[in-house]
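Reviewers of the previous submission asked for a worked example of the structure-prediction workflow described in the proposal, so we include one complete record here. The input consisted solely of the amino acid sequence. No template or homolog information was supplied to the procedure at any stage.
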Amino acid sequence: MSESMAVRCPACGREHQYAAPAYPCACGTPVAPPLDRRAAAVSVTHRTWDEDWVTVRCGSCGRADQWPHPELDCSCGTVLRVPVAGAPGPLGEDGAETAEPPANPRATFRPVTIRTAHDAVTAVALYLRWLGYRDIRRADQRQPNGIGLAARGVLAQVDPSVSPASLRDVECLWLTAMTESTGCVYFSLAGYTDNARDRADGLGVSLFVLDLTGTPQPVNGAATELAAAGSGA
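From that input alone, the workflow returned the following C-alpha cells.
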C-alpha cells in the first residue's frame, strides 16, 4: 500500500486521506501509482479511456503497464481523480515496450469492488491483464449491450445490465470476434439465459459472471479452462 496523502474536494472543500491501491505486476510485485502531492485533485465530469488509466512502471522488473487512475468518491457525490506523479503517456507512444519478465506463477487476482458500470469495466480490464493479455483498450466496434474491450488475441464484452445476456448478445460478440480473427470472452453481471449458455458452449465463447466484489466466476467449460491456464501470451 502506498503512503496516504490529503486530497481536497474542489466541489465542497472536504479533505480526505487517500492511499492509492496496489495491483500485482505480472512478476508478482505489488505496484501502486505514485501520487503527486503538489497537484490538486480534479472532478471527473466525463470519462475517456486515456484519462481513466495511467502507465506505471514496476520497480522490481521494469515492466510498464496501464492501471486504473486513482479515484476517490467524496461524500458530496463528486468523483475525484487523484493526481499521479510523473505518469508517462499510454504504452506504445514511444514505439517501445519493456521486455517481458521471466515466467512467474500468477499472483492472486485482486478485484475491484463494483458499484458502477465503470467499475465493472475496470474489473474486467484488470482480470484480462491478470490472465496475460496485453495492450488492453476500448474495442473499435460497439456491441448491442455493454462495453467492449480488446487486447492482443481477445475481444471481451462487459455487460453491466440487470438482465441476463441473451443468445443474440453472445452471437453478436462471436461474429465480431470472427471478423477480427480473435478469441472472445463475455462478462455479465446478471448471468446468461439458458439458450445463451448453450450457444456459447457450441461456439467456444468463454462466459464469466461478475459478482459485486469484482471477481469474475467462470460459468462454462471454456471459461474454466481460460481461468486456469491464462491467455498463454
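Residues 5-81 form one domain. We consider this example representative of the routine output the project will generate in years two and three.
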